[in-house]
Design a protein that fits this description.
The chain is of the alpha+beta class. It has 16 helices and 15 strands. Among the domains are: about 70 residues, 3-Layer(aba) Sandwich (MutS, DNA mismatch repair protein, domain I), CATH 3.40.1170.60; about 60 residues, 5' to 3' exonuclease, C-terminal subdomain (DNA polymerase, domain 1); about 160 residues, Dna Ligase, domain 1, CATH 3.30.1490.100.
C-alpha cells in the first residue's frame, strides 16, 4: 500500500494580509499590525505584516513592543471579514480537493490528503501545492506557504520549520529526512505540540533536541508526562499514525461545553463573580439549545500576573441537570469558598462535563418538575428571542452592571472585534 502524501497550506500573516489587500497595499512593503488600540498599549497584535516580520518584530507582540522607529498602520480586528476571506479561499481549495480530504485546522491553515490527486492531475506534490497557492493569490491577493509530508505531523513540521527557509515557501519531509535534518534542531518548542512549558520540563531532563528525546528512557517519560509521552516518543521519530480519515471518523466518548475569557483589566473577586455568572448563564443556554444535561461542573481562575497558581475546581452533581438555579448556585457556592479574595483576577473559565441527551435523563421522585419546566420554557423563550433579534436583544439584569462583560462580548467573534 502506498504511503499517504499530505499537504498543509498556511495563509501568511492572514489577518494582516487581508487588511493590506482591503487597502490595496502590498503586505511585503507595508508596516501594518492588527490590534485593538482601544485596549491600550498592552493590546496584543493578532498579526503583523510580512514586512514587519522581516524587520525582526515578533508576531503576537504587544503594541508597546513595536520599535519606536516603526510607525505601522494599526488595523482594528474585523473577524467577520477574515471569516469571509477564509470561506472564499476554502471554495478555491474545493476546485482541486474534495471536502472529504480536507481538514480545517484553523481559520488560516488546512490539511489535505493529496495521495490520490497526484495521479489524477499527473503532477508531483510540489507542483500541486504551487498550483493551488498561485490560484489563491491570483484570486484573493493572499499569499501562502505549504508543508508536504508522509504523515500529518511531518507535514506540519515541514510547514512550520522548513517552508519559511525555502525561497518557494514550501517544505517537504519524510521520516528519513526528518531524522537527518531536524533531529538536532533547537529549540524544541519549534515542534508541533511542544509548548514552552513542555520544553522546560524536557530541558530539566537534559533533553534539548529530538535526538535526545528519541533515545531517552521511555519509562521515565511516561512517569513525567503520562499518556502524552506516547506522542512525544512517536514524534521524536517522525511517526504519526493518525490520518484525516481518522479525524473525520472520530466520535468522542464524552461531551462537554466550556467558556473562557481574559479580562481587559484586573478584577476583584466580587467583580469577577459578576462575569462568572454571565458565563454560566451562557453555557446553560447552550445546554438547553442542544437539549442536554450536565453532571460535572467546573471553573478555573487565573490570578493577575500569575502571582499565585491558578485555581481549578471540578465536582460531580448527584443528578444531571440543565437548571439555571441549581447550576449557578453550586458554582457560585464553590467560587465563594475557594477564591482567594486578596489577589486580583485576570482569567476565567467555566466547564460543563458528562453531557447527556434529554432522552437518556433519569427523573427522580424529588425533582420539582413544574419548577424545572418553567425554567426550561423561559430558557427556550430567551433563545428564540436571541435567535430572531440578536445576542444582546435580551439579557439578564446582571449584564447591565458596570463590571459585566457580556454586552461587549456579544459584539465580538473569538474574543475580537467582529466588524
Amino acid at each position: 500500500m502506498n504511503k499517504h502524501i499530505y499537504l498543509c497550506i498556511d495563509l501568511k500573516t492572514f489577518y494582516a494580509s487581508v487588511e493590506c489587500v482591503e487597502r490595496n497595499l502590498d503586505p511585503y512593503q507595508t508596516d501594518l499590525v492588527v490590534a485593538d488600540v482601544s485596549r491600550g498599549k498592552g493590546a496584543i497584535c493578532l498579526a503583523i505584516s510580512p514586512k514587519m516580520k522581516a524587520r525582526g518584530i515578533k508576531n503576537r507582540c504587544r503594541l508597546f513592543e513595536v520599535p519606536k522607529n516603526v510607525h505601522p498602520i494599526i488595523a482594528k480586528p474585523r473577524m467577520r471579514l477574515y471569516i469571509k476571506y477564509s470561506a472564499w479561499i476554502y471554495s478555491i481549495y474545493l476546485k482541486y480537493i474534495s471536502k472529504d480530504d480536507i481538514y480545517p485546522y484553523s481559520i488560516d491553515e488546512m490539511f489535505f490528503d493529496i495521495t490520490s490527486y497526484l495521479q489524477l492531475y499527473n503532477m508531483d506534490a510540489f507542483s500541486l501545492a504551487k498550483m493551488i497557492i498561485k490560484d489563491v493569490y491570483d484570486i484573493t491577493g493572499i499569499t501562502a506557504s505549504a508543508g508536504i509530508g508522509t504523515n500529518l505531523y511531518l507535514t506540519k513540521i515541514a510547514l512550520d520549520i522548513l517552508a519559511k527557509k525555502n525561497p518557494n515557501h514550501i517544505g517537504y519531509l519524510n521520516e528519513e529526512i526528518y531524522i537527518k535534518t531536524l533531529w538536532h534542531h533547537q529549540p524544541l518548542s519549534d515542534f508541533w505540540r511542544i509548548n514552552k512549558r513542555t520544553e522546560k520540563r524536557l530541558n530539566q531532563l537534559n533533553i534539548y533536541d529530538m535526538d535526545s528525546l528519541a533515545h531517552f528512557n521511555p519509562n521515565h517519560l511516561y512517569r513525567e508526562f503520562g499518556i502524552n509521552a506516547r506522542f512525544l516518543i512517536d514524534h521524536s521519530w517522525g511517526i504519526e499514525p493518525c490520518t484525516i480519515a481518522d479525524i473525520k471518523a472520530y466520535q468522542p466518548q464524552s461531551r462537554s461545553l466550556s467558556n473562557h475569557q481574559i479580562l481587559f483589566k484586573d478584577y476583584s473577586y466580587q467583580q469577577a463573580r459578576i462575569v462568572l455568572t454571565e458565563m454560566v448563564d451562557n453555557l446553560i443556554l447552550q445546554l438547553v439549545a442542544k437539549k442536554m444535561y450536565t453532571r460535572i461542573l467546573g471553573f478555573s481562575i487565573g490570578y493577575s500576573k500569575d502571582v499565585i497558581p491558578p485555581l481549578q475546581v471540578s465536582f460531580k452533581l448527584e443528578q444531571a441537570t440543565d437548571s439555571y438555579h441549581d447550576i449557578l448556585k453550586r458554582i457560585l457556592d464553590e467560587y465563594d469558598k475557594r477564591i482567594n479574595i486578596y489577589f486580583p483576577i485576570r482569567r476565567l473559565g467555566v466547564h460543563f462535563g458528562a453531557l447527556t441527551s434529554y432522552q437518556y435523563h433519569q427523573l427522580t421522585l424529588f425533582t420539582p418538575s413544574l419548577f424545572y419546566e418553567d425554567e426550561y420554557a423561559l430558557a427556550n423563550t430567551i433563545l428564540a428571542i436571541k435567535d430572531k433579534y440578536g445576542a444582546s436583544s435580551i439579557l439578564r439584569a446582571i449584564s447591565y452592571q458596570d463590571d459585566a462583560t457580556q454586552r461587549e462580548r456579544n459584539k465580538l467573534i473569538g474574543g475580537h472585534n467582529a466588524e
